[in-house]
Hints:
Structural class: alpha/beta
CATH topology of the largest domain: TIM Barrel
Number of domains: 2
Oligomer: single chain
CATH superfamily of the largest domain: Metal-dependent hydrolases
Strand content: 25-35%
Largest sheet: 8 strands, mixed
Distance between the termini: 63 Å
Amino acid sequence: MRFSTDGHIVDIFNEKIFPGRVTVENGKIVSVEELSAARAVPARFILPGFIDAHVHIESSMLVPSEFARLAVVHGTVATISDPHEIANVCGMEGVDFMINNGKQVPFHFYFGAPSCVPATLFETAGATLDADQVEALLAKPEIKYLSEMMNFPGVLNREEEVTRKLDAARRFDKPVDGHAPGLRGEAARKYIESGISTDHECFTLEEAQEKLRYGMKIIIREGSAARNFDALIPLLKEYPEAIMFGSDDKHPDSLVKGHINELSERAVKAGIPLFNILRAACINPVLHYNLDCGMLRTGDSADFIVVEDLRSFKVLQTVIAGQKVAEEGRTLIDSVPVTPVNKFRCTPRVPSDFAYPLLKWGEEENIEQVYVIEALDGQLITNKKIVSIRSVINENNLLQSNTEEDILKMVVVNRYTPDAPIAKTFVKNFGLKKGAIASSVAHDSHNIIAVGVDDASICAAVNYIIENKGGISCGTDGMSLPVGGLMSARDGYNIAKRYAALDAAAKELGSTLSAPFMTLSFMALLVIPHLKLSDKGLFDGDTFQLV
Length: 547
């Protein structure tokens, strides 16, 4: 099939815009022709497609094929996708599921080999990927890189398993993604010198600048919960060839609204030069990860977009491998059948299982204080608080939520082992005044996490998740996620509407967080400081041990 598209061509490499024609045949660009200035061309712009340089598809709650259907509407043609979440649940079977499902639609999914499954030894996961399995993944042509190396202590201490994974990536000449929030100075230099080439976890400009000086590339992350765009976007003026855009974790309602196109629009408003923005959004990921995604050159795969202007980047048309996949805000990709993979072994609970008795170790001990995790809206990091036990104890020596002080009980239930003990702590800033919310999307091991004002409400929310073998819930109402307890196989637009309704319901219970379910999912993410909860107990991310 041969066709041509006329418009104003945006040549990012040469920083030129000119009237021209792109001709496509058999999925490849056969010519990029400059037309005479006197010749009338449509008042539109043709440029390479947008690329999300770091995303966990699972966090959209959509399988890859459904994610693609929504993303192409916003001009996204490719993702650098870390299947870390499904790997923590289902191991190699989960990674294979993501690859095979993604192949069923016209979209470029570039998957990585998860480097940290499980992420730590202080939680119960559903699988383990050792160095031999990681090497087997890296040998696959579909696997383009070693995914984010979260175990930075293991890198610095040259732990054998970590070193073997890094060495395998080096042998296959595949880049290694980093994950080192707050790592500075000599430790950061050693981490980067081990061969780790990107980081998406910088939350201050100074940290990112230091890592750039050590030779790292920085992915500016703007997701549904973690938002670092405003802090880091000044980097793009000074380091245009070392910056990329990524969402990391993006919920379905956010994906319906926009993707990398939104970040490009915001960068224009922030005064960043146009071609710097387009390098980050379209070109740098292809060059860094050595991808076969097209960059609007003769001989490239025909992956490009047509936009109305170079300010809002309203997408008029998206083409991938010569196939038109979106037009005028409408996806042209059909849904495909899905056979779920999953691992869910826990059984329903009763309210008394969530009782939190005051434990004393010896008759003389006088317990005066308790730890509280302080959640921060728009950030993955948390603060470590200590409050008087009088704030949360009742006359029966049971610890309970205090809605007046916004100190709520939070629990993690092991989903892989029936009748395992339930971990309990307290969290601040969720703001619930009644009821409870729960989720089986709980990074990194994806046990069930819940927060609520009383044990009956917490139990009801948790049991919805158990009975559906995964999902999110607001009390007894919810949405099932049967693929790994992380994703739905249903139409992505319907899932987005259902998620938005549950998000609104959580806010009706009193939550003031911008994304309460997304924030909840990160309260078990042990590799991000400072205090988190796993199924094994309260974890201090600074000392890297259970409290």
